[in-house]
Amino acid sequence: MVGCSMAIRKNREDLQLALQEERRRVRELESLLVQVTQELEERQRVLDRATEQWLSVKNFNESVLQSLTTGLISVDPRGNIAYMNRGAERILQYSTEEVLGKPLGMVMASKERKDLLSVKRDGKESPPAREIRITRKDGVEIPVGFTVSSHLNEEGREIGKIIHFRDLTEIKEMQEELLRMDRLVSLGEIAMGIAHEIRNPLAGIRIMAQALEEEISHNPTWREYVGRIISEIDRLNELLKSFFSFAKPQQPNLALCHLPRLVDDVLLLLGKDLQSRRIRVEHTHDPDLPEVKVDEGQIKQVLLNLFMNAMQAMEEEGSLRIHSEKVVVGGRRELVLSVADTGKGIAPEHQSRIFDPFFTTKAKGLGLGLSITYRIVQRHRGRIRVQSEPGRGTTFFVHLPCERH
Ligand SMILES: Nc1ncnc2c1ncn2[C@@H]1O[C@H](COP(=O)(O)OP(=O)(O)OP(=O)(O)O)[C@@H](O)[C@H]1O
Ligand SMILES: [Mg+2]
C-alpha cells in the first residue's frame, strides 16, 4: 500500500517536472514568436520603404519620359511597340492605345528602305544619329533625326530596342530659309547692279524711238515698227519695275483690315480669266476671323501672285480653294491663309527653289512672283510655306501675326 502511494507521488512529481519543462518550452516558443513577428514587421517596413522608393523612381522616370518633347518608343525583340511617350504621340499623331503591340513600321512608315532598327553591336559608344523621312498618320511627310539603342535587362541581355527621335521640320525650314536669304541677298545685289545699268540706256533708247516716231509719221509701216519698239521698251521697263520692288521692297504701310475682303477684291480682278479656264473658286474663312495689320497693296500683290500661279498650274479646269483661319502657334496668334489648287504640282527637286528670284519653269515667266511674295510676307513678320504633290496640286500657306488690339 505504502509502495503504491510512493509510486503515485513519484509519477506526480515526474508529471509536474514534465509540465514545467513544457511550460518553459512554450515560453521559449512564445518569445521566439515575438522575435520572429518583430523581425517580420521590420522586414515589411523595409519592403514598404523599398516599394515606395521604387514607385517614386518609376513615377519620376515615367514623368521624365512623358515630359520629353522628343519621341521615345521601345520595341520588343520582334520589333513590336511596347511603349511610346507623349512626345512620340504628338510627332507621329498616333495614340499609344492605337499602336501598342503593332510593328514599328506602322508608325514610322518611310519610303526610304532603311533598316530602322539596326544598332551598333559594341554598345559602348553612343549610337549614331540618323535621319529619315517618315509619313505621319495624317499622311504628311516629315524629316526626323533618330538614334536606336539596345534595351538591356539586368543580366545585360537585349530585350528590345529604344528609338529616340525628334521632328526636324522646323530646323530644316530654318536652314532652308537661311540658305534662301543668303541666295536672295547675293542674287539681289548682282541683279540690282545690272538692272541699274539697263535702265538708263533704255530711257535713252525710248526717247530716241519717240523722236523717230514723229519723224516718220508719214510712213505707216515704219511707224508701226517704231511703235513696237516703244511697246517692247515699256515691257522691259515694267519688268525692271517689278524687279526693283523685289530688290528694294517698300516698308509695309500697316492698317487693320479684314483679309477675306482683299481676297474678294483680287478674285474680282481675275474673274474673267478664272471663268474662261473653267476654274471653280471656293472662298471660306472662320466666322470670327480677327482683323490683321497689313499693307493692303502689298498683300493684294501676294494674293495676286499666288492666285495667278495656281491658275497657271491648272491650265484648264480645276478648283482653287482659299481659306483663312485663326491658329495659335507656340503661344503666338496667327492668321493662316491657304491657297490650294488642283494643278500639276511642283517637282520635289524644285520645291526649295521656287522662292528664289528668277526661278521659273514657265516659258514666259520671270520667276519673280514668289520671291516678291516671300519678301512681302517676311516684312509683315509672317512666313510662307508650301505643300505640293506632283500631279495632284499645291497648297501655299501664308502665316500672318495677329496682335491683340
Ligand atoms: N501653284 C503652283 N503650282 C505649280 N507650280 C508652281 C505654283 N506656284 C509656283 N510654282 C512654280 O514656282 C515657279 C516660280 O513661281 P513664281 O511665281 O516666282 O514665278 P513664275 O510664275 O514662273 O513667273 P512670274 O514672275 O511671272 O510670277 C513657277 O515657275 C512654277 O514652276
Ligand atoms: Mg508667278
Q: Looking at CATH, which topology of the largest domain would you report?
A: Heat Shock Protein 90
What would you say the CATH architecture of the largest domain is?
A: 2-Layer Sandwich
- The share of residues in helices is 40-55%
The rough form would be described as: rod-shaped
CATH H-tier superfamily of the largest domain: Histidine kinase-like ATPase, C-terminal domain
What Rg do the Cα atoms give? 40 Å
Which band does the percent of strand residues land in?
Answer: 15-25%
What CATH first level of the largest domain would be assigned?
A: Alpha Beta
Instruction: Supply the number of helical segments.
Output: 9
User: Strands of the biggest beta sheet: in what spatial order?
Assistant: 2-1-5-4-3
Instruction: Note the run of SSEs as H and E.
Output: HEEHHHEEEHHEHEEHEEHEE
Distance between the termini: 125 Å
Total strands: the figure is 12
Poorly predicted sequence stretches spanning 5 or more consecutive residues: none
Average of per-residue pLDDT values: 87
Kindly name the structural category: alpha+beta
**What does the largest sheet look like?**
5 strands, antiparallel
Name the hetero compounds present: adenosine-5'-triphosphate, magnesium ion
